Amino acid sequence: MISKILNAVVALLLLAVIGISVIGTEWVTTPLTFVEGDSSGIVHVGQLVFTAYVIPFEALSLVLLAALIGGIYLAKKEASA
Amino acid sequence: MIPLSYYLLLAGALFAIGAYGIMTLSNGIRLLMCIELMLNSANMNLVAFSTHINNASGQVFALFSIALAAAEAAVGFAIILMIYRWRAEIDIENINLLRW
Fold first, then answer.
1. Would the pTM count as exceeding 0.95?
2. Which residues contact A2 (CB under 8 A, 6 or more apart)?
């Protein structure tokens, strides 16, 4: 129980450090400019995925396939031994 | 437009909740759930910064990060399933095979 309280104190300290550093920073932002007919920007994101980031996209498909095969192999009930 | 610092404070709060869960956990499923919470707070940071510097690359990165988190969760659940079959428990306080 004591260690749980200590852990909560550590988590709150982490939150305090993050919060103070976020509040104390002057964020220079330029707001998102919306294109006509693309109010959420999802068309632009989709075009980026299939043009500028197409190599990471394909690599990600290989990673997902490997994770799928690995997960099924690990979770499979072994038939013998 | 919602100010950037609100998003960052929310993401920090999510990360702190996930870190608290990691520190106090005794269950393998809870470990994976807290890791997902921390990953999602990082995703929220990516999307918030992306919309506030008018550059959509951060949203693409968040998309990739979500897919990688799915892969990580699949492998993690498979490992926990194997540990349960091997030890008939998933209390990670007692699974100290890889600890020093």
1. no
2. none
